[in-house]
């Protein structure tokens, strides 16, 4: 039987006028009404978060810190200037690119053989969590009788594993046979051979040669390892992308290198290998540059020594012939300026000669030197003109002294620079140092379990609310009787609250479950009683008492309304008959504890007479006509003259004839029966009946010439909203038998 004892509403949407915005209370009510759905959704998402945290392997992060030192300021001015000109100081940005270069990364990849992946085969999904770390060099005993899987302590060290290019990345399986023996197999490579630890295994097939050398294996007989040989260039490229290299602080010349990986020990090893190779290449580079500079200086020293000897000889010859002339202060100043300019010019020409061995004329460093050389040549030209104005002997003395002093300074500077570079080269010192080497991380950086669970909870609650709002938008269940009147243009004649007692009667299913008969003071019956009063006022004509109770769809409670309305009318002393015209799925007989057979269907098929199908209800229950056995074509029976005659006879015998019909939107039976009715009521259930269903039902009735007089709002949740709170207070105050 259909009644107010229903499950939670199927939709949560209010129907408000289009110009009326929804209040916050609507959304709060929507959340509270769907709290079970929201909590279940949140629980599911949280469980998915737990599964994610447990299944996803942890990711560890290691880092190292490198400092780039400034060595451009050497002990010799010439060495410092030459180092600056040769751009020996790289700085942090350039060193960062060197760290992630193929030169450094490839050396680390080769050192650790990162292109060889050898790992024990674990139980899928949960194998990592069931690992047991054994003591010493033994392996863990198998669990659950699965001895082919690794359970902890297994080790496989592969020194060499070369495969043809077509087999790179393909899976090979290495099966431990015990005693250091193993079997290498691969379906993709057509390989199946036995080998021994410490002995190279070489196989040839149509694809090429497979080479394997296992240096160490710790495993039980029957355990398996998975082997893959990846492309060396692909591994180098991937490692270059995974490295994070950045300067720690602006212009600090301190570089941080970070790497993440699944194996915390290996991640730290990779970073330290990169640091070692970077230091080695930096030292090698600086040693090479220093050696080149030393060779260049040593090549220039003999020529400069000869030039110095010639200058000394010329000056001594002049002094022996003419003696030494005291020069005026102005002439001495001119000599100093000329010597200084000449020395700088020669040094710059030496630098340019070194740069010409490494760079083209378009290099910025070469261009800068050419500009400085041009400036000094102009200065020397001016000094030479001033010297030419001096007396002949003074000119000769100034020229000889200048040449001697310039050659002496240049030779001594180059000699000192060469000696200092020899010392630096012997010391083998680069310009970078590792401040912090990488260490194995103790805790993973991903997944962050607490953060994942918080986001899972928040996301689950948000998803649950979204589902609730989507459900409200799609199903459009009515939730407000006030706005319902405005939407369909019909008055709400009664608002029937949900009845827990009716739910209990339905579960018991032991005979009479008519709420008005068992609990006449129930709040739901009070609402039906108000409907009774309204109908008695609307139907004052004694000859017009046929009331049609319809609903848009099954489960709205029209049978509950029909049965309890008929019972209340009978209790008030009226002559009432209740007719179950649902010849397809009639259920009213169950509520009355009566059999279904020998009812309306038998009468319409002329298998029984009217008095045989009318069951007397007594003093407190209405007379009743059951639906009877379900016929094959109920609509044709309802259109028969015998049905019309039945209703006419019942009208003449009873003051009220309550007719319960099938759903309007399901079949046309309601429209057929409604053509005989004096008054029609449409039952809408809160949360289950949508506005569109209600509108289509009313339109279908009107199309059949039936004008509904009102709506019965059924199954109203008294816990919901401010309207329900007021209604609950009023009903609770006026309950029978309470002061």
From TrEMBL:
Transmembrane segments: 36-55
Domain Tyrosine-protein kinase G-rich: 393-473
GO terms of molecular function: protein tyrosine kinase activity
Keyword Transmembrane helix among UniProt keywords: yes
Location in or out of the cell: Cell membrane
Species name: Paraburkholderia franconis
Protein name: AAA family ATPase
Domain CobQ/CobB/MinD/ParA nucleotide binding positions: 547-719
GO cellular component, one term: plasma membrane
InterPro entries per the UniProt record, alphabetical: Bact_polysacc_biosynth/exp, CobQ/CobB/MinD/ParA_Nub-bd_dom, GNVR, LPS_length_determ_N, P-loop_NTPase, Wzc-like_C
Entry superkingdom: Bacteria
